[in-house]
Amino acid sequence: MIRACSLVALATCLATSTAADWSRFRGPNGSGTAEGALPDIDPKKPLWKTPIPGKGVGSPVIVGGKVYLQAAPTDKTRALVCLDAKSGKIEWSKEIAGAKAKTHPKNSLASGTPAIEGERIYCAWWDGSGVSATAHDLAGKQLWSASLGGYSSQHGPGFSPMVHKGLVFLNVDDDERAELVALDAATGEKKWIAPRKKHRASYATPFLLERPGKGTELILGTTTALTSYEPATGKVNWEYAMTFPAGVQPLRVVGHPVYAGGLFIVYTGDGQGARYMVAIDTDKKTPEKVWELKKDTPYVPCLIAQGDRVFWIADGGRATFVEAKTGKEVWTADVFGTSVTASPVLAGNSVLMLSEKGDTAVLPLGDEPGKLTKGALGEKVYATPAVADGRVFVRGESHLFCFGK
What we know:
The structure is a single chain. By secondary structure, this protein is mostly beta strands. It has a single domain, classed as 7 Propeller (Methylamine Dehydrogenase, Chain H). It has no helices and 33 strands. Strands 1-27-28-29-30 form a five-stranded mixed β-sheet, with no helix packed on it. Strands 2-33-32-31 form a four-stranded antiparallel β-sheet, with no helix packed on it.
């Protein structure tokens, strides 16, 4: 979002991170966007390939030449794992207790993505019944743990933290409860809690936005509402109550909205195939809908904003590029003939996509779709890739792959 949309807050580039770091889910401010060209990706020739000590569908993060990810080595344990980004060597793995629990087939016992600021790594965990947040130092020592209560969802948890100016934000939204929680980054103490209307578990991670005359806004979109908060206090700046077309039940929000062309674009869906996307103008006296789409939009994979356009790949493998201000299609392209769960990432002008089967596809963005380059990892992929220091990191079902120089 930062580089894909110039109005998104640069403040989320973390204090000790470089521009090349990828320090939270989907990178800087959750944009899924990296500076520099996308490196060549030859699935047969990774820079390195390392077995991961445990299952999980959370994404890797990369800061200071280290890769961090969460895993479940067994049904009764969870782990924070650190690897060297250049060699792929595992440097340490720190376990915490957990228990066996039921998840959706595409989910896992360790589905969160860490967030890093300064000298601390923040994680969201599920022990099989309740959820918690922890802080570790860069050597893996646990500094604090904070309970976030029970968690009830047919899919299991999958939310991730984000950090801003000494606060850790977590969207704890399940079938029984919905609230945005802010923890003190130094101690884990709850600083504020913003109750939200619950309906269906949503997994969106908040992001930051700066607009002239409005200050820094913390934006969260779920099944029930798109809301702007004051980050320090949780005060609501404005809210748009989500409405759905006649005959369409309220749909789940998995990935967060994007801001492009002066509009917020929220996408929703469910496992039965229902889809709904809406663009909202919040500069009006009362936030209002500008356009909507009811098919061929994603359920799980996140959107990417590029200037005044928005790109996505739907769960069925079809890519779409639209004008953000109108929703008008620029082009569509059939990419995969199979399911997609991982979100795309953009580096330079090329977008990388992965199918659940582990197929890779790179597509340049422009007024017309560029040449599609495809490959196959030979391993299932459910996690969103990361891009840092001119390299791409892809978490497969059993291995972490690194491509680049």
